[in-house]
Specification:
- The protein has 2 domains: 241 residues, Rossmann fold (3-Layer(aba) Sandwich); 72 residues, no CATH class.
- It is 28% helix and 20% strand.
- The chain has 10 helices and 11 strands.
- Strands 6-7-8-3-9-10-11 form a 7-stranded mixed sheet, with helices on both faces. It has a 4-stranded antiparallel sheet with strand order 2-1-4-5, covered by helices on one side.
- α3 packs across α4.
- The structure holds adenosine-5'-triphosphate.
- The site of adenosine-5'-triphosphate (ATP) has 14 residues, from β2 and α1.
Length: 327
């Protein structure tokens, strides 16, 4: 079991004049054997943070550590595997799926020799509930859900310690999303993997996560044990997400759309507002306050994540003011 730590990580794209900071000084820990669910609207920087761990996004400050070792020093970064929204991006369309999975296996060890590799491919296909006979098929011959299972098998072939799953059910037909999610939950438990699970859909995140982290404009605005974040959200953005999410009583995969689609102002990462980045939107929400100077002028500290439940808000946890209620 392994721990993944993002330490003050920033990712900047573009030039100084026309660039944007997609991830801004984020600290987040994925503890051994646990699932951290990362939620937030489109453009908040979730994918960029994830990609920074596997070398697909340029880390401009801070570092990512796996069990204390900077991931840049891990050979091939194999212990960290990522599964993407679109399985086509990790599967070569011309390669049979057995070969794709085999290619991702480490050299040496128990999987040297064609026979051992074939057996390992069959084992991995069974692990993701696919018939080993499918090893000879091409990705196009499979359904979207089956392709995502193959992408998971391929990630597991690398014998990872940590898996990063980025919107892995979002592109799938609603009817198969639940099955893929259940599979991920079961396989993760079985293998004792640590996982960073990204989704814009809070209902999906809460189904799987031990810890929930909420991202807004390149920052973690709230993080903590899942049940605490859900039952006692401290940041107004988390409250906004929760009020937009379907309740426990509605089906998990009812399409909720992107959480940013509410009536609020869209956030623009090229021009983050001064003070608290959320303040222009917060004025619309239940925490609107008469005296908001502090929010307009002063950036609330993102603490380094040592407290189990943290929120970057000057008025974290304060109840809504009566005059601030939504019209
Ligand atoms: N390669 C890139 N070059 C320039 N800007 C980028 C690049 N990748 C992402 N961005 C920008 O960084 C910001 C964060 O994007 P990111 O994809 O990480 O957000 P996200 O929360 O994962 O959203 P989504 O769910 O839509 O992918 C966005 O403004 C995006 O346009």
């Amino acid at each position: 079991m392994s721990e993944l730590v993002f330490e003050q990580v920033s990712v900047r794209y573009g030039t100084r004049r026309s660039g944007l900071t997609a991830v801004d000084g984020v600290s987040l820990t994925v503890p051994s054997g646990q699932v951290v669910g990362l939620v937030g609207e489109s453009g908040s920087g979730k994918s960029t943070l994830a990609r920074s761990a596997v070398g697909l996004a340029p880390v401009s400050a801070g570092r990512v550590l796996l069990d204390g070792t900077d991931v840049r020093h891990l050979a091939g970064r194999r212990p960290l595997q990522m599964v993407f929204q679109d399985p086509y991006s990790s599967l070569d369309p011309r390669m049979r799926i057995g070969a794709s999975i085999s290619e991702a296996m480490p050299r040496g060890g128990g999987t040297t020799g064609a026979r051992a590799r074939r057996a390992e491919v069959a084992r991995l296909l069974e692990l993701v509930n696919l018939d080993p006979d499918r090893a000879g098929m091409l990705p196009a011959q499979l359904s979207g859900g089956q392709r995502q299972r193959v992408a998971l098998a391929r990630a597991l072939a690398g014998q990872p310690k940590v898996v990063i799953a980025d919107e892995i059910t979002s592109a799938l037909d609603v009817s198969v999303q639940g099955a893929v999610l259940n599979l991920v939950r079961d396989v993760r438990r079985q293998l004792g993997l640590s996982m960073l699970f990204i989704s814009h859909n809070l209902a999906v995140v809460r189904y799987l996560s031990d810890i929930i982290a909420v991202m807004y404009l390149g920052r973690i605005v709230e993080a903590g044990p899942a049940e605490q974040v859900l039952s006692d959200p401290q940041h107004p953005y988390t409250r906004e997400l929760l009020s937009a999410a379907p309740s426990w009583h509605t089906p998990l995969f009812e399409e909720t759309g992107d959480p940013g689609a509410a009536d609020a102002e869209p956030s623009d990462p090229h021009h983050p507002p001064a003070g608290c980045r959320y303040h222009p939107r917060c004025a619309l929400g239940p925490l609107a306050r008469a005296d908001r100077d502090l929010c307009r002028t002063t950036d609330p500290a993102q603490d380094a994540g040592r407290r189990p439940h943290r929120a970057a808000c000057h008025f974290a946890g304060e109840p809504a003011e009566p005059n601030g209620a939504r019209a």
